[in-house]
Amino acid sequence: MQTITELAKRTRLLIMDVDGVLTDGRIFITASGEELKAFNTLDGHGLRMLQSTGVQLAIITGRDAPGVAHRARGLGIDHYYAGVHDKRTAFAELLHKTSLAAEDCAYIGDDVIDLPVMSRVGLAVAVPDAPSFVRQHAHFVTGCSGGQGAVRELCELILQAQGNYDRLMAGYLA
Predict the structure, then answer these.
(1) For the chain, how are helix, strand and coil distributed in percent, rounded to 5?
(2) How far apart are CA 15 and CA 123, in angstroms?
(3) What global pTM score does this model have?
(4) Which of 6, 17, 32, 164 is the most exposed place for a label (fewest CB within 10 A)?
């Protein structure tokens, strides 16, 4: 059985769910029907650092919220799939578009809708507030909750496993 570090070292594509992963899972809806979500800036910077090392980023989400699309564009997310009810289809398309193997992908999710992809990737990650059934099917469970730095934690894990973390941190001290 491979260690988490060995699994993370192979990651070339990080795929994320949104609600409960990039956010805390709460959805605020205004009187006009607009959805509001809060994103963690630490997660955003972690994603930028990961991208700088050549790891591609993707979002596969069941909801289609304009604010999420805006955030994805702002972060330069390579692949964005919204309103997806069967995440396997989007995952298969991602593999085809990127010419990557499933083992080269990491996925972070928080609910049973994420399991069809989590069960296929090389590194399956859950947040601690995911249902126990989901956590049981993850290779790794973050210490931080969704929307509270879970994605940053995963980015740093991948950066460390791939030998890029110390070099990137040294750049901030130069």
Answers:
(1) 45, 15, 40
(2) 10
(3) 0.96
(4) 32
